[in-house]
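Exercise: predict the fold of this chain.
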Amino acid sequence: MIPHRSAKLATMENRNFSFLDTLIINADQAIRTLVGKPLATERPNPTDPLPETELSAQEQDLSARLMRVNHAGEVAAQALYQGQAITARLTDVRSAMERAAREENDHLVWCQQRITELDSHVSYANPLWYAGSFAIGAAAGLAGDKWSLGFVVETERQVTEHLDTHLHQLSLNDTRSRAIIEQMKTDEQNHGETAKTAGGAELPGMIKSMMKMTSKIMTSVAYRF
């Protein structure tokens, strides 16, 4: 699923951790996600070959807000995957959640770097997004692996739609932000397909609607703060 991984992460993947170990690891992940340096893969930032283009004040403000929303979404994704991993019953499902979380970390790093370039800030409500999403992920894992995977399938479907909307909103001049979002979209689609292939169940319509409503609240707040 991830084209490149460090030897350290690969070694961790093969170890059997106690429940206490897992809690400590998740606490470390939370700190890294919110205030530290996330454990990303060795993939290069999609913006590396692209020069910075001149944006109007309005274009820069819009880009910063949209990338802040995307960053908040990646904070939530980290928590979601970590919550699912801690309650997943099958080892291969747990490993899939952990691998997906590391690839989402790439997105987290890329979005944060772009926000800095745009002279803006990440969402002040990120701790809230993390706590809420971790609880949702853990609950999905407790419901059973097929439902946990089904939750990933639907989450990634909604995220892909959300990223498509951002690509239409962004200025064509902002090639660096667009490059990040396009790579994120490709990755999210892959995560969804992987979860579906692994046995993800179709979620009830009411659950899908609740997920969409929750996402709308988060994106609206993150866009402003």
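Check your answer against the key: Confidence is low (pLDDT under 50) at residues 1-14.
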